[in-house]
Amino acid sequence: MSVQAKKHLGQHFLKDENIAKKIATSLIGTNYSKVLEIGPGMGVLTKYLLENKKKETYVVEIDKESVAYLQSFFPLLRNKIYGENFLKMDLNTLFKSEPFAIIGNFPYNISTQIVFKTLENRTIIPEFSGMFQKEVAERIAEKEGSKKYGILSVLTQAFYNVEYLFTVPPNVFNPPPKVDSGVIRLTRKENFSLPVDEKLFFKVVKTSFNHRRKMLRVSLKSMQISDNLKANPFLTKRPEQLSVTQFIELTKLVAEDLAL
Predict the structure, then answer these.
(1) Where are the alpha helices (DSSP H) in 133-213?
(2) Most exposed: 117, 132, 139, 181, by fewest CB within 10 Å?
(3) pLDDT at 5 over 60
(4) What is the pLDDT of residues 100-130, one digit of tens each?
């Protein structure tokens, strides 16, 4: 029995056991006892997660064929398989607000949404490790000053420390994707709350990068900032020149300006 990879679900089944083991053991945190794997497919990663007796492994899989396969071959997963869409799950009620880690060989077509859902639920997700399209993994891990640095980089790094772990070639998948993949690990920062209004922070970051080639005084014009703030030398920079800390400072400036 095997599962047919489905293009509309973005499935590329990992077949390299060594890489599967490396991903499974990339979770290093001790402040949680449960792990949720997204998109396990035929369980190449799952079997190594189940070897860790200190962590309880659960999986979420939208593909009914994969769910049937996992139920047949992994008795240890009995009552621990969620046959639903991860993006629609209420993570706060999943383990009664207990902290848990996320791991997976993520479908490329929803990988960015998985990261954003993790950020929304960061109070209960202290660690996250997984495989993305290499370009997306690099974007998440990138620092300021690069063309790859953008919204995803800033918002993720505001709350998590990001490590790019290793690159994975296409030939270890069935079917092979057309691009390389990259594995990253997110470890939640000790202080993961911001000293500014978080909704405003998200808005400032997104508005800034919507016009990434323009100076901030131009890209933030739509937020109705004053001429006074536009004249601030800080706003002569382009968004990719700002670190996460500077984006927090910029949010403070915008908040003060809008309050006038």
Answers:
(1) 134-141, 151-159, 198-209
(2) 117
(3) no
(4) 999 999 988 899 999 999 999 999 999 999 9
pLDDT computed for residue 252 by the predictor: 96
- C-alpha span between 242 and 260 (Å, rounded): 25
Question: Three-class SS of residue 55?
Answer: coil
Global pTM value? 0.93
Tokens 């739509």: give the residue: 222
Instruction: Write out the two tokens for 38.
Output: 């997204």
Residues 120 and 178 in one domain: yes
Handedness of CA 241, 111, 130, 10 (dihedral sign): negative
Print the domain residue range for 144: 7-188
Domain termination residue (choose one: 143, 168, 188): 188
Residues whose CB falls within 8 Å of the CB of residue 68, separated by 6 or more in sequence, listed in order: none
Residue 184 phi/psi, 5-degree rounding, is -125, 160
Does the pLDDT value for residue 4 go beyond 70?
no
